Amino acid sequence: EAGVTQFPSHSVIEKGQTVTLRCDPISGHDNLYWYRRVMGKEIKFLLHFVKESKQDESGMPNNRFLAERTGGTYSTLKVQPAELEDSGVYFCASSQGPGASSKFFGPGTRLTVL
Amino acid sequence: GDSVTQMEGPVTLSEEAFLTINCTYTATGYPSLFWYVQYPGEGLQLLLKATKADDKGSNKGFEATYRKETTSFHLEKGSVQVSDSAVYFCALMDTGRRALTFGSGTRLQVQP
User: Fold this and answer.
1) CB count, 10 Å around CB of A45?
2) pLDDT tens-digit map of A72-93
3) For residue B87, what is the enclosing H or E element?
4) How far A15 CA lies from chain B's nearest CA (Å)?
């Protein structure tokens, strides 16, 4: 069974540009989460989808970030326009059930904003 | 709000040494506690968990005990191996929430 996949693995862009990160959850997982780790600090929650609906977006930092999950399958996280402080590693996780023990994480996308 | 504090790394040990990575937490409810591990080039993997006070989570020789009185969940292993080299994250999930709150991670380097 394929795990959670994320694309790209690494993205380098200039300040002011737009970047779109993609996450493909494990097939059949209704719950999809985005997290990010900035500058080697703690991993912070961004938002949670249940199927195509945003269940909790309390961690989204500002309106430059837009997450979508059309059709309830893969999800995209767009940053527009990107700022220097957006650099970090963006993790996606999916689960069928609500418990943390059932969450499977992807390898992350490393975003570098110059 | 909830928070997790863990010791800064990197922690460098020789093979077969004893490992302790400290983790303390602050939570408003009755959280479940977790340790995740990230090996180079891979995603986060759940290492172990404990869901209530005095529970001990264990896996692959690692252990951690949920101590409510000290709000701690320290990770221990009696004899580390080179293959244990990774970044370890302490995390909690508070009552009624589905999001994890993580610590800043501790890099462990085990030398042969």
Assistant:
1) 22
2) 899 999 999 999 999 999 999 9
3) strand B86-93
4) 26
